[in-house]
Amino acid sequence: MMSKRLAVILAFVLLALAQPSAAGSEGVLTPAVWRALDAFRPEHRYLMARIAWCESRFDPAVVGAVGEQGIFQVRAIYWGEVPSDMLGQAEQAARIVEVHGTWPWSMRDGCEGWR
Questions:
Q1: 86-111 pLDDT, tens per residue?
Q2: Which 3 state secondary structure label does DSSP give 63?
Q3: What is the DSSP track for 36-62?
Q4: Structural domain boundaries of the chain?
């Protein structure tokens, strides 16, 4: 029979595992995602949030079919090494937007549902 103390510890562990990650990999705008979006000019934040959700559901560890990386699915071959952390990825994407606008990203079908 399980002790009461062990049952409480197990309950806390299961609760912690059920929570969305701080990185927002569940597609939720967490505080970490909001901080990352601060890398953009105010007029770009909404669109870039939509792009990040569409490309990765805010998961900084996601890798695309042809090597795109991070929450914005940046291709290192074109834009340089992609940082592993969400803030670094947002700063890299903000530099791309400042120079090239948002043309490097396309809002593919199925991404219209983000609000």
A1: 999 999 999 999 999 988 887 665 56
A2: strand
A3: HHTTS-HHHHHHHHHHHHHHHTT-TT-
A4: 22-100
